[in-house]
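Hey team,

Filing this mostly as a record. A colleague (T.K.) asked me to run one chain through the structure pipeline before their review meeting, and I want the input and output archived in the tracker in case anyone asks later how it was produced. No errors, nothing strange. Just documentation.

Input sequence:
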Amino acid sequence: MIAFYDRVIGWISGKIPESLMLLFVRITLAGIFWRSGRTKIEEGSWFTISDTTYYLFGEEYANVPLPTDFAAVMATVSEHVFPILLVLGLLTRLSATALLGMTMVIQIFVYPDAWWSVHSLWTALALVLIVRGSGLLSLDAALLAKTRQ
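Output structure:
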């Protein structure tokens, strides 16, 4: 029984299951921020930031210690660029760190009561990617393999 358990744990701990898990984590974290970013865009446009977004950053998100227009643009761009990079597995650790930073800004300055219900989960996802990287199923891994040839 112990030998079977050890084999199962050995397989689960392997590169393929880990890479599948990291792909799932990348897609999950990317999806959270992508959907948020899409709410900031004018409906029917590719990338026109809506007046509602500027209003929210001026009113509801006013505690963020950045100029309103700058914060609205940076958040919107970040919520589009970093999720795309995560799904591709390109610059994964950088992208996860950027989204972790956004999470902390949101936690501290916008929704301080949302730690256990939301932000702790986003933080956990980002930290997994920062610590473990993107896994084998990523452009990071492909580029690294190419540079080692």
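Quick notes for T.K.: The mean pLDDT is 96. Residues 89 and 138 are 4 Å apart (CA to CA).
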